[in-house]
Amino acid sequence: MDRADKRNVFMHPSGEVRTDWVVREEPLEIRVEGKPVAVTMRTPGNDEELAAGFLYTEGVVDGADDFQALREVPSVHALPSNTIDCLLAGGAQAHLDALSRATRELYATSSCGICGKASIDRIVVQTGPLTSPRRAPEHLLCSLPQRMRREQQTFQHTGGLHAAALFRFDGTLIVLREDIGRHNAVDKVIGNRLLADEVPLEDTLLVVTSRAGFEIVQKAAVSRIPVVVAIGAASTLAIDLAIKMGISLYGFTTEHRFNRYSSADSP
Predict the structure, then answer these.
(1) Cα distance between the two ends of the chain
(2) Catalytic residue at 115?
(3) Which of 86, 112, 115, 142 is the catalytic position?
(4) Cβ atoms within 10 A of the Cβ of 31, count?
(5) Fewest C-beta in 10 Å: which of 4, 151, 197, 223?
(6) In 73-122, which ranges are E strands?
(7) H or E segment and range at residue 4
(8) What are the two backbone dihedrals, phi and then psi, of residue 123, each rounded to the nearest 5 degrees?
């Protein structure tokens, strides 16, 4: 299992020492044309998708056509590579100023309501509200948590991973990815579709096993995903952004209930 390692663990109250699967966590440096632009702590695997999704949802690239290649940078001393370099296609330009501005504002949103409002206004101006908002059928919403659990293979061994998935409105699973970071999992599924040249994603639902924070709704807005479903709670800024963008946002979703925080066709 490449996303987990076995480690010794003391079992209380039996007093036994056993081996248990533990999720791997390693840094990934993302570069553009050799220039470092971000480092994230992630679970190794699908690193090209993670890099592509991150660069797209943070506004550094405009789409799949901007990529010439995403390549793993060889490491020294036979260690695993933890660096992905994005090579741009001819004529494409990386908007690195957008990344630095977004990073500053996202750090501020947890403590500054004014900064949070500025972040929402920036996204609305840059991407515009969805032109074709959607609302998820109740029977589909309540089926999603169980569908997610069945597909989370590494979580079943470790209990230490978030997951994100894209579904069609008929319930078809398009792609699911796991990662120790909830934002990384979202970037991986969006990156998967971006590299398949299937973005924007107007006919999909994004489902996350975590809470729905501002950054997750932001990534959905940039990718034009009309419905975000969280197993956990939603934050105030996530709700505000969803309302502004015309995204239907759901939280505390289980087999029997859900909260609807914003909807395309109701207050």
Answers:
(1) 46
(2) no
(3) 112
(4) 17
(5) 197
(6) 83-88
(7) strand 4-11
(8) -65, -40
- Return all residues near 194 (Cβ < 8 A) that are at least 6 apart: 52, 53, 56, 63, 64
Report the candidate in 193, 218, 215 with the shortest Cα–Cα distance to residue 203.
193
The DSSP bridge pattern shows strands 83-88 and 26-32 to be parallel
pLDDT in tens, 201-220: 999 999 999 899 999 999 99
- The pLDDT assigned to 18 comes to 79
Selection from 5-9, 71-75, 186-190 with the highest mean pLDDT: 186-190
Beta-carbon contacts of residue 233 (< 8 Å; ≥ 6 apart):
211, 212, 251, 252
- Ordered structural domains, the chain, with CATH: 138-262 (3.40.140.10)
Which pLDDT score is estimated for 156? 64
CA 261 to chain centre: 20
Alpha carbon separation from 58 to 43, 151, 167 (Å, rounded) = 20, 28, 22
